[in-house]
Design goal:
InterPro entries: 6-blade_b-propeller_TolB-like, B-propeller_Phytase. It comes from Flavobacterium seoulense. This is 3-phytase. The protein is mostly beta strands. It has one domain: Neuraminidase, CATH 2.120.10.30. The chain contains two helices and 27 strands. Strands 8, 9, 10, 11 and 12 form a five-stranded antiparallel beta sheet that branches. It has a four-stranded antiparallel beta sheet with strand order 3-27-26-25. Strands 4-5-6-7 form a four-stranded antiparallel beta sheet, with no helix packed on it. The relative contact order is 0.16.
């Protein structure tokens, strides 16, 4: 089944044309996935990893199926579909956070954007049940509203959770809106707007967003322009751009972002080089004593086709994922799982 999925994805990719640029074929030296998930009905877009609090081998991957009749799907570590959410109208990206307080209890949540309803949707984990009263409107009062990217920030000081939401288009300086997730009563979650920020080149769109809770930063891909960095905490009242990097590293679109944490402050930022079918790797902590300097460390060729979204964890999930798991969306309606050791080996080789 694994080989069948990979072949189907390759065939699909060779028939596509994106951004006026032909997609690169899978390289002969491309990293092969340890697991390819079961196919979804429509169009995979973005995954997020939920770590089981007691038995990490029971952790799940939550991924979006981007269609008018789409939804969130939960996969086990063998790539098998174990749950589908209620139907959603074109869910785009998804992120996960732990311990949102609802009715006095801590609830782990998956939050996704629902483009055709201009809202975000909140689901409890691991049961993947909605707890949002049917959806929470975003970008209210704006002409350009369709939400796409999302990332969740958990503030270390008080464990409050904030959603950073991007959209298909918007004005530079206030392209991203940040919402505090709240207890709306009756066992439901709500959200309150707390911040509008974010520069935008106008070249394409902002879809891929990632938050580094420990470092307190937001990274997002201004597609075909670069990767931008901001402070995550809205209480800091600092909307200045901290860094802009990766501007000359990508074939066309810079897309999905994943942050691998080797320690509280060190690790790697992996960004999809979408039309090249590779991932570009940067130092999470910066370089040369400058936390806002991000030289390219490595380019990792993978078997994913035109990857939109990715996630990674350093937690041992057992088996082949004892040092962590990297998951990436691939054309062919699947997600690919890679053991972290294979990626680390290629990063180490590139550093020599």
């Amino acid at each position: 089944m694994k080989n069948r999925h990979i072949v189907a994805a390759v065939i699909a990719a060779l028939t596509l044309n994106s951004c006026g640029s032909s997609l690169a074929p899978i390289r002969k030296d491309a990293l092969k996935p340890d697991v390819v998930t079961q196919k979804l009905p429509h169009d995979t877009d973005d995954p997020s990893i939920w770590i089981h609090p007691i038995d990490a081998t029971k952790s799940i991957i939550v991924g979006t199926d981007k269609d008018t009749d789409g939804g969130l799907y939960a996969f086990d570590l063998a790539g098998k579909i174990i749950k589908k959410s209620i139907p959603l109208q074109r869910p785009n990206n998804v992120d996960i956070a732990y311990g949102l307080v609802i009715n006095g209890k801590k609830v782990d949540v998956a939050v996704t954007t629902e483009r055709e309803t201009n809202s975000i949707r909140i689901f409890s984990l691991p049961d993947l049940e909605p707890i949002d009263n049917g959806g929470i409107p975003v970008f209210e009062g704006e002409e350009m509203r369709g939400p796409m990217g999302i990332a969740l920030y958990t503030r270390p000081s008080d464990k409050k959770i904030f959603a950073v939401v991007g959209r298909k288009n918007g004005p530079s300086g206030s392209y991203l809106w940040q919402y505090e997730l709240t207890d709306a009563g009756n066992g439901k979650a709500g959200a309150t707007i707390v911040r509008k920020f974010g520069n935008y080149s106008g070249k394409k769109e902002i879809e891929a967003i990632a938050v580094d809770n420990e470092l307190g930063t937001i990274l997002y891909c201004d597609e075909q322009f670069g990767i931008r960095k901001y402070i995550a905490d809205p209480a800091a009242k600092n909307d200045n751009e901290l860094a802009l990097f990766g501007q000359k590293d990508f074939k066309a679109d810079n897309e999905g972002i994943a942050i691998y944490k080797k320690s509280a402050t060190e690790g790697y930022i992996l960004v999809s080089n979408q039309q090249a079918n590779t991932f570009m790797v940067y130092p999470r902590e910066g370089a040369n004593g400058n936390s806002n300097e991000y030289p390219l460390l490595a380019e990792i060729p993978t078997s994913t086709i035109e990857c939109d979204g990715a996630d990674v964890t350093n937690v041992s999930l057992g088996g082949q994922f004892k040092n962590g798991l990297f998951v990436a969306m691939s054309n062919g309606m699947t997600f690919h799982y890679y053991n972290w050791d294979s990626i680390q080996q290629l990063i180490d080789q590139a550093k020599k």
